[in-house]
Each structure stands twice: as structure tokens, then as C-alpha cells.
Specification:
88 residues; mainly alpha; 5 helices
């Protein structure tokens, strides 16, 4: 692939930017950028470290000889086969 720069395109004219109403945005103030962090921190602190129901589900699936379903395995194998290199 060859990239050809557009030599006719000029830079941005500051006068045009000023007339169009586009202005450089100041970076957000610290108190604005972290306004929701208190709620997020509280939610993380209240979340359990271990989700017992998910551990039990995983244990059940590991012990199930029909998991994952045969159709899922076949679809995955087809996807993997399509990604094999042609000369491999």
C-alpha cells in the first residue's frame, strides 16, 4: 500500500478557526474529572471478593461431560481452521 500525501492541503488557518467558534478546550478540572469516583469506589468496596454462585456454576460445568456442546466445539474448530496459514 502506498500513501500519497495531499500536498495541496494546507494547515489550519487560525483566523478561520476563531471565526468558526472552535476553541481549544481547557483540560477538565480535577474535581470535575473525578466527580463519579466516590460512587465507583463505594461500589467496588461493597462488591464481594468471591461470587459463590459463579464458582458453583464453573464447578458444575467442569464436571459436565457434555459441556461445551458439540456444536460449539465444531464451530470453534471451523473458525480456527479458517485462520490457518495456507502454506502450513
Amino acid at each position: 500500500m502506498e500513501i500519497q500525501p495531499n500536498q495541496k492541503a494546507g494547515g489550519i488557518n487560525p483566523a478561520v478557526v476563531q471565526r468558526s467558534g472552535l476553541r481549544r478546550q481547557d483540560p477538565p478540572r480535577e474535581e470535575e474529572s473525578f466527580a463519579g469516583s466516590t460512587a465507583v469506589r463505594r461500589a467496588l468496596e461493597e462488591a464481594p471478593d468471591v461470587r459463590v454462585e459463579m464458582i458453583q456454576r464453573a464447578r458444575n460445568l467442569v464436571g459436565d461431560p457434555t459441556y461445551p456442546p458439540r456444536e460449539t466445539i465444531q464451530r470453534l474448530s471451523h473458525l480456527l481452521a479458517m485462520r490457518l496459514p495456507a502454506d502450513g
